[in-house]
Amino acid sequence: MPAALPRTAREVRIAALPEGLPSPEHFAVVETPLPEPGPGRLLVRNRYFLVFPGLRTLMGTETDDVPLPPLRTGDTLFGPAVGEVVTAPDGSPLRAGDAVLHMLGWREYAEVAIADCAPLDGSLPDPVAYLAQGSAAYGAMTRLAEVRPGDVVFVTGAAGAVGSLAGQISRLVGAARVIGSTGSPQKAERLVSELGYDAVVLRGAGPIAPQLADAAPEGIDVLLDTVGGEQLAAALGAARQGARFALIGALAGQLSAGRAGGSAPVEIDSYQLVVKGISLRGYSGGDHPDVEQEWTERFGAWLRSGRIRFPYTPIAGIDHAPQALPDLIRGQHFGAAIVEL
């Protein structure tokens, strides 16, 4: 290994599994020996990593259908990360200095299999943009809901990592009016002034249904739902004939202190589905393998032209990372939450 490398590095581990929602004391920043890559593996110095709400599910007891491994006490957290290759084996297609995307965030240095790293190809103008969570929203808008010119679109969780991009995407693919939901007046103002939302309904300011009726008096054509719960039920009441609902999250249940992270029951009026001819489908990226590349190409072009913004909240350093997930769950961030190392 190059002499300039440190002997140790820090990472964030689970100190104790929470019984409800996680708090900073459930995590610990620990110092470990610097990884020594084996055959076919790289040493990567991480620069940025994403804090994503699915970690709460992985720490819970309802992980049977989740396509990621569960997390237990002593495990190091993980998630999307952008880093720089430090060492690579002979014959590797990647070399020292290459920027890569991988899934071993929450640590300063990662030992990663070559096959599990994707080189940053320059499609996006800023390396941190590779952590944007817009692919599912784009796929849901173009494959499931098929947003059409003139549509009225309602995006729940509009100030989150997905929603902050979803509203902009819906406008770019043809929506005439875009309505969002969020939990604070400050975020609501930013959604309108910075991200082009036409109106915002405020969680906690009274029932959602009448607020949505005021924001969309003629109804909605498309729902892009990251929350579920009361907001999904309210959207059914506001739906126009033939409305298309695309579900890509269920944070109302996933981030509930009274649940185990992997369920989100909600009572909906199935009669409305029938008489209005509403389609309601969940989006899975695995069902649409062509979406990721298409999204990256369009996202890069939109970023370069200034037609889209990538909002995120920077978190300075790994020492502040244990606070990042609890803050995300409490709605403290605007856009994606990204730890900068």
Automatic annotation (TrEMBL):
Q: Which UniProt keywords apply?
A: Oxidoreductase
Q: Does the keyword Hydrolase apply?
A: no
* SUPFAM superfamilies reported in the protein's UniProt record: GroES-like, NAD(P)-binding Rossmann-fold domains
Kindly indicate whether the keyword Electron transport belongs to this entry.
no
Q: Which residues form the Enoyl reductase (ER) domain?
A: 20-339
Gene Ontology molecular functions: oxidoreductase activity, acting on the CH-CH group of donors, NAD or NADP as acceptor
What's the superkingdom here? Bacteria
Please give the name of this protein: NADP-dependent oxidoreductase
